[in-house]
Amino acid sequence: MAIDKAIWHYEVPDYPKELPNEQGGVHIAFFFRWMAENGFAGAELNEEYPAIQMKLKLNMLDAFEILMNFFDGTIMAEDFSEDGARFANAYYLEKELYSREYGNYLEDYEALMPQLEHLEGFEKFYQVVKYSEENYQMVKQQIDQRFAEYESWLSEQNNQEDDSIKSEINEVQG
Which part of the chain is the DUF7832 domain (predicted)? Predict the structure, then answer.
């Protein structure tokens, strides 16, 4: 199942005709890059394209180009490691428990919009954000923060499950 697709963002009625379709994938590329840089790339990138993965980590290749050319502007849970897919689903998908409590990626991205550099000549909205190192660094800080919160939240969830299991065992033994 796709988590996000560039086509979902450029095949909308209000998408400017003069704007390249690829612009619909900039926000996805920022997330994809963060995932790859943080060791959450999936088997396809790690095993089938190890040279691409290495060049991506060394900033020799552009995550935006990789996303658009190798992944058709789409990220799926399968594109990430098991832990990466769990985080991507929890943070990116707005209906997940974590994102309902803490916020999701697209909400965070929209909140950053006033600070991000945009293409000139367009009204400011998320599809006209430039894919640049400066913009990525701002988005990266936000994802870093959310990931730290996610790890704490996940640990808390696991502790609650452990306590629940212990309680059930005590009831059965009691």
Answer: 3-114
